[in-house]
Design a protein that fits this description.
mainly alpha; elongated; binds protoporphyrin IX containing FE; cell membrane
């Protein structure tokens, strides 16, 4: 399931870039399709993350933080695309997204399941 979790968010990242590029290129129809598929992946990320979370009967602060950061990352992916679509200012969201994404990945790798890096 850890591999499923990683696969879902890697595909989601690719879809964010594809949808963002299509919105920027003015291809609204293509962007809409990529964005819809991405929304399906949000659900898969959350389901696979929740499955990992519910394997533990006692959660420590790091698990709660991982889940909250994961949800914030997904929220920022959606905000990025909505703001791009509406052509609103986006620099702050990009910075926030990258910071939160890196923190989520670092904390995910620090926690005990799956690959051990940190
Ligand atoms: C885009 C969002 C997310 C990213 C980039 C992300 C990233 C990661 C990474 C890199 C790992 C480590 C995998 C490994 O060690 O092999 C992980 C594990 C985990 N994730 Fe996520 N995640 C995201 C969303 C979520 C969400 C929404 C939840 C909770 C609902 C969640 C809960 C977990 C849990 C419980 C683990 C297991 C930690 C452990 O190793 O013990 N993640 N995630």
């Amino acid at each position: 399931m850890t591999h499923m979790h990683i696969t879902t968010w890697v595909i989601a990242l690719i879809l964010v870039i594809v949808s963002y590029g299509l919105y920027s290129a003015g291809n609204r129809k293509g962007a809409k399709i990529a964005h819809m598929i991405l929304r399906l992946f949000y659900i898969l990320i959350i389901l696979t993350g929740a499955e990992l979370l519910f394997r533990f009967t006692v959660w420590n602060g790091e698990y709660i933080a991982k889940a909250v950061l994961g949800l914030v990352t997904v929220g920022l992916m959606e905000m990025l695309l909505i703001r791009r679509k509406k052509e609103k200012s986006i620099t702050g969201i990009w910075v926030g997204f990258i910071v939160v994404l890196l923190l989520t990945i670092a904390l995910g790798l620090r926690l005990p399941l799956g690959f051990k890096v940190f």
